[in-house]
Design brief:
Strand order of the largest sheet: 1-2-3-4-5-6-7-10
CATH architecture: Alpha-Beta Barrel
Number of domains: 1
Order of helices and strands: EHEHEHEHEHEHEEEHHHHEH
Shape: globular
Largest sheet: 8 strands, parallel, barrel
Number of helices: 11
Oligomer: single chain
Number of strands: 10
Length: 284
């Protein structure tokens, strides 16, 4: 993944291409024209260097292409294809994207793993997705979860960790996230992606739902500590925004790039809010 921001928009390496746009998914559930216009406007804005890929379900590719024909963007849209049609639908979805290479550039393919992450299924993922496209597989948390994470990495894919959702069971504990970090960091060259409910930079409790959300800044700082042999759990549990920001700002560029090689990116429907929080913390 390229971590150098384009042109004069200087985004620090720790935040370059960090935030993939998931506006089509809950909680935003934006209509395709709205989500697409929002993404293109953000890509032309002052903080474009922090923006990653546009996330689109495979089932909505025709709708995406119809809107792109109307808009005719100057450059192809970089997308991550979210497979919601089953593994068997991957070749057709990729073929559709590749047939529209003047409008779309496929950078990533993401899919949930079956309850039992077996070798045959992972081999099919490798066969279906081109080598120059990042494969992201989400093992289900539960019994054998970390074994599934290891298998995903061993087959050349990134594991994905779901950090929240619509019920308390969707939110992994600090210990579960720390254990996930230990597994991924223990395999040379491994990277992971995070998703869901990372709406804010710092860990907090939502006043409406009562759920305690992980913060994306917590995840970045925890990744730095994981690589340096520090206290990962303390970083994940912290609600001290200024302290987390100071630690993040103290990372050298090589250290920041190492952090991002581990924690590659995350999906969010709230790109402007994330940028605003980073600005408030004096990190941009």
């Amino acid at each position: 993944m390229e971590l150098t921001p384009p042109g004069p928009r200087g985004i620090p390496p720790l935040f370059t291409r960090l935030i993939d746009d998931s506006a089509l998914f809950a909680p935003a559930n934006a209509a395709m024209p709205v989500a697409l216009r929002f993404y293109l406007d953000a890509r032309a804005g002052d903080r474009a260097g922090a923006l990653g890929l546009f996330l689109c379900p495979a089932s909505r590719l025709p709708e995406l292409i119809t809107e792109l024909i109307k808009i005719r963007p100057a450059t192809p849209l970089p997308i991550s294809l979210i497979i919601d049609t089953g593994l068997g639908g991957v070749p057709k979805a990729i073929s559709i994207v590749e047939s529209r290479d003047e409008m779309l550039t496929l950078r990533m393919v993401e899919m949930p793993a079956p309850s039992d992450v077996d070798e045959v299924w992972l081999e099919r993922v490798s066969e279906f997705v081109p080598e120059d496209v990042v494969r992201v597989v989400e093992p289900r948390r539960g019994k054998g979860w970390l074994d599934g994470v290891r298998k995903v990495i061993e087959h050349g894919s990134w594991p994905k960790i779901r950090c929240g959702g619509l019920s308390s069971e969707n939110f992994p504990s600090v210990d579960e996230v720390a254990d996930f970090y230990a597994v991924v960091a223990g395999i040379t060259g491994a990277s992971f992606k995070a998703t869901n409910s990372l709406h804010r930079a710092v860990r907090h409790t939502d006043t409406e739902s009562g759920f305690t959300h992980h913060g994306f800044l917590n995840l970045l700082v925890a990744a730095g500590r994981c690589l340096a042999g520090g206290d990962v759990r303390d970083a994940l549990a912290s609600t001290d925004g200024p302290a987390l920001a100071a630690e993040a700002a103290s990372l050298s560029d090589p250290a920041a790039k190492a952090v991002r090689e581990l924690f590659a990116c995350y999906g969010s429907a709230t790109f402007p809010d994330a940028v605003a929080e980073l600005e408030e913390l004096a990190l941009l």
